Queue: 2 jobs
Job 1
Amino acid sequence: MILVAFETSCDDTGVAILEEERVLSNNLASQVHVHGKFGGVVPELAARKHLEAIPVLLDKSLEEAGCSINDIDCFAATVGPGLVGSLLVGLSFAKGLAIATKKRFVGVNHLLGHLHAVFLAFPDIKYPFVVLLVSGGHSEILIMESWEKFFRVGKTRDDAAGESFDKVARMLNLGYPGGPALELLASAGNPRIPFPRPLSEKDNLDFSFSGLKTAVLYHLRQNPKEKKEDIAASFQAAIIESLLEKTFSAADKFNISTVVIVGGVASNALLRSEAHAYARKRNTKVYFPPKQYCTDNAAMIGRAAFEMLNRNLFSDLSENAVPYLGLNESC
Ligand code: KG4
Ligand code: ZN
C-alpha cells in the first residue's frame, strides 16, 4: 500500500509518500520568509502559500518516490488542530485527489501524527510508555497503554512550552520562529539566573509557564544591561527542568520504564541531552523522533495514517477541518 500524506495545519506545507511504514519521500516548504516580517503567522497568507506550494511539492514527492498518482492507494491529510484556512487547503486537496482517482481518504489528527513520528525511527517501541508532547500549542504528558488506550496525566495550565519559547524569544527581539533562535542564543550563555520552576511539587504533573515568562519580562526590565545570552540560557534551563522533572515523575508514578518525547520543542538539543541524562540515572529508556520529524512534517501524518489504515479506519469525504481538535482519551 502506497499513501500520500499532506500536512498544512500551520505555516509549513508538507507532502510525504509512504509505502506501508517506509518513507519514500518527504518534502517541506517553509513559509518563514513570508511571516518573519510580521513576527508571527498571518493565517490568510499561510493558506494562500499552502495553495501555491502543495501541487509543486506533490509532483516533487511523486518523482522522488518513483511513482505516479495512479500508484497511490490512499490520500491522508491533517484535519486538526490548526488554522482553519490552512487545514482546508491540505484536506480539500487530499479529498479531491481521492475522488478523482477513486481511492480512499483518511483524515489524521495532527497530535496523533506528532506522537507516531517516533515510530518512523523506532518501530519496535513497546507499550506502555510515557509521552511528553511539546509543540507550539500543546504541552501534555500521556500514558500510552496501546494504540487505542491512553490517558492524560498532566497538561499545561496556561501557555504551551513552544509558545513560551516563542514569547520569550520575542521579548529578546529574536524574531520568528522563536524556539530555534532562542536555542541558538542560549548556547552562548550561562544559565546562572535562578528563574522559577513553577508547580514544582513532586506529585503535581501539570505545567505552568506563564509565571516563568513574566519572571523573564521583569528581569529584563530591571536589568536592561543583562547579557541576553544568559537570559536565554537560564529560561531554557528552567523550562527544560520543568518538562523533564514532571515527565520522569510520571514514569516513576506509573512504574513505566520507557519515555517518548515528541513535538516541535523535542528538536531542542538541550532537552534531548538532558532527557538522556535523566534516563540514564533512572534506568529508563528515552526516545525522540529524528529532529526533522519533531517539527511539523507530512511523514508523521503518513505514519499515523498507516496505523489507521491497518485498522480499517478510513474517513468519510464529509470529514471537515477541526481547528481545536484534541487527543481523545480512551480510558
Ligand atoms: O510541533 P510544531 O512544529 O508545531 C505545532 O504543532 O505547534 O512546534 C512548533 C513549536 C514552536 O513554538 C517552536 O518555537 C518550537 O516548537 N520549537 C522549539 C525548537 N524548534 C521548534 N522550541 C525550542 N527549541 C527548538 N529548537
Ligand atoms: Zn505540530
Job 2
Amino acid sequence: MTEASGLIVRYRDRLPLPAGAAIISLSEGDTPLVRLQSLSDARRGIEVFAKFEGLNPTGSFKDRGMTMAVSMAVHQGARAIICASTGNTSASAAAYAARAGITAFVVIPEGKIARGKLAQAMMHGATVIQITGNFDAGMAIVKKMPDEAPVTLVNSVNPFRLQGQKTAAFEVVDCLGRAPNYHFLPVGNAGNISAYWMGYCEYAESGLANARPIMVGCQATGAAPFLRGAAVAQPETVATAIRIGNPQSWDLALAAQRESGGWFLAADDDAILAAQKYLAENEGLFCEPASAVSVAGLRAELSRSAIPDGATVICTLTGHGLKDPDTAIAQSTEPIRVGSTMDEVRSVILDSG
Ligand code: AN7
C-alpha cells in the first residue's frame, strides 16, 4: 500500500474536509507548468506557461473539484450524485463515484458532448441521461433534483467543487515561486475562474504570494454571455465543453475580473481550432478545443501588444485533446495511403522533403 496522495492530502490545511472523513482520490492535481517556447519572447521578457490540466486522472481539471465534492458527499452519507455536463464533469463524476462505490447520474445534451467523454461516463458505470436541450436546460433540472430524489448535486454550484479547484492556483504559485502577472483561462459555467481567483486571494492573504494575477476570461464567440453582459439563449461553438449560455458562477466570475483588473474576451471557432492546432504542432501539447480558447485569447492580446514586457503569463489548458478525437481528425490532413512495399513508403518520405 502506498500512502494516500492527491490534492486533498497536499493542501489539507486549506480545504474544508472534516477530520476523519474518507478521502476519495485518484491522485489528481500536481499537473505541470509547461513553458510555451513559441509564445514566450526573450527580447521582451515575456514568459508563457501552460498549466496542463489534461494530465489529471480523467483528463480534465474537473477532478480537482470532484475529489472534494465526492469525499464530502460520501462523508454526509450520500449514495448517489448527479450533475449536468458538457462532458468533462460527467466523466469525472462517473470516475469518482465508481471509486467511492456510489451511483452517478449524468445529464448531457444529446449529440453535443465529445466522444471520449461519453465513453468515460459509460465505462465508469454512470447512468447517462441524454436530454434534447442544451447544458443550461440540464442545469436547471439537476439544480432542483436534490429536492425531488436522494441525490447530491456535484456541479460547481456545490461549494466543495470550487474549494478543490482553487488548489490549481496554489500549485501555480508553488511552482513559479510567486504569482504570475496574467492568467488566461477558458470560461464556460464560470466555476474555474472563480476558483482560481479564490486560490490566488488566499495565498496572497496568507503571505505566500506578494501579488495576484490579472485574470483574463476567454469565451467562444458563439457562447459569450460575459461579453454580452447577459445570458445567451442558444450558445453554439465547436468547443462543446464551453457551449454554455447561462453561467452559474456569474457573480463570482465578474468579481474575479473586476478585483483583478482583468477582462473578458471572445475567440471565434476558427481561432480556437487554429490555437489548438498551433499548440499541438509547435509545442507538442494536445488539448481539447475549449482549452485552446485561452491560447487563442493570448495570441490575440499579444498581437495587439496588450501584454507588457517582462510579464509572466499562465494559460490553463483545461482538458486533454484525446477527449475529442472527432474534432481533431476533422481539422487534420488525411493519412497518405499506399501499398505495403518499401518503394511506396520510401517515395512518400523522399517526396515530403
Ligand atoms: C475542458 O463538464 O461545464 O467555466 O459540464 O470541460 O468552470 O465551467 C465543462 C467546462 C473549460 C469551463 N474547459 O470551465 C462540464 C463543464 C473545459 C471544460 C470549461 C469546461 P467552467
